């Protein structure tokens, strides 16, 4: 029973790997090639987007990096072309290995430990690191990173440089008028400087291999609509299938084999039959669950995330007459594809929030902000009150959380100046 439950919670790719390994050691389990290649109606729609239930955000699936160099190896390759003395080279390499994932150095690094005892060497190493490609590497802050790039391009005396050095936080809050008055320039000039700053690279490590493993998700089921009705396709059509080998079954019945060989085949036959039956039960349970989910969430599959309604695994288990833990295992590590994207099964079990889902609340907040007066945008408190008037008891902090997830600036950042 434990092994059966283990197979039930495996995803399509994990199950295929398990059965492939089992077939290599069990001659009774025979692999049959996939019936078709991975070509689905909505392939282009979901191949690069997965929805995260915890945040509601889209997650871009990683794609193979065109550059096979990591940032560190690229920097070290440049150092190899320079004639540096041993002490300076060691200092630069020390800085390189202390770069974070963005290509920044921790602030205060030169004032600590070994760097402090050899400050002259490390200051020279820092200057050297910031002089090589990519521009901005070795900076300790966003403002410093942008200033390095502008200085490299001969724009150290520009308005963009001054803003990056002294007024970046105000620029992020869209305080164009405040910056213009403080620097004695027109708002138009500040706006042009902002566009120049936007063209710079805030993360020097962008475009370099981060050493992470590329992960590809295979959907366990796909939901498509044909003649207005939902149709569910299993991943089995483009995954190898496994069944009992007729050849070895006949061999096991042969009178020419020894008692020891007959016992070996009997044991392997039992193992193969168990594996096949578990796979069949897994498929049947999964399809039953998905069929009911599609019935419950039909509006979502037809119209998108804003139509996702509250639904629990316990409710689904009750309707199917099975234990909730079975539903939980059947949904674990599984993905479902439809025209709106590729989603973890858990995404479809929306928890109740004032009668509506987080995605629906997010869409309401977005609509409220879209209709506001840009000269006097609504604060999070005001949005909370509007939602309350509409019957949704959403706190200011919750409004701010959803707004941040949608990358919508605060009222100050949205104000038209």
Features:
417 residues; 51% helix; 4-stranded mixed β-sheet; alpha+beta; two-stranded antiparallel ribbon; 4 domains; 21 helices
Characterise this structure:
The protein has 417 residues and is α+β, with helices and mostly antiparallel strands. The protein has four domains: 2-57 and 216-348, no CATH class; 71-129, no CATH class; 142-198; 358-414, Arc Repressor Mutant, subunit A, CATH 1.10.10.60. The chain is built from 21 helices and eight strands. The protein has helices at residues 2-8, 12-25, 43-46, 71-80, 86-97, 113-117, 119-129, 142-152, 159-166, 168-172, 176-183, 187-198, 246-253, 259-296, 298-303, 313-320, 324-331, 358-370, 380-389, 396-405, 411-414; strands spanning 29-32, 49-51, 58-60, 221-226, 229-234, 241-244, 335-338, 341-344. A four-stranded mixed β-sheet has the order 5-4-7-8. The protein has a two-stranded antiparallel ribbon with strand order 1-6. It has a two-stranded antiparallel sheet with strand order 2-3. A hairpin with a 2-residue loop joins β7 (335-338) and β8. α11 packs across α12, α13 (246-253) packs antiparallel against α14 and α19 (380-389) crosses α20. The longest helix is centred in the middle third of the chain and has 38 residues, at 259-296. The chain is flat.
Task: Please identify the structural class as seen in this structure.
Answer: alpha+beta
Provide the spatial order of strands within the biggest beta sheet. 5-4-7-8
Largest sheet: 4 strands, mixed
Strand content: 5-15%
How many beta-strand runs?
8
Helix content: 40-55%
The string of secondary-structure elements, in order, is: HHEHEEHHHHHHHHHEEEHHHHHEEHHHH
Oligomer: single chain
CA-atom Rg in angstroms: 30 Å
Taking all residues together, what is the mean pLDDT? 81
Domain module tally: 4
| Model regions low in confidence, pLDDT < 50 over at least 5 residues | 40-68
Shape: flat
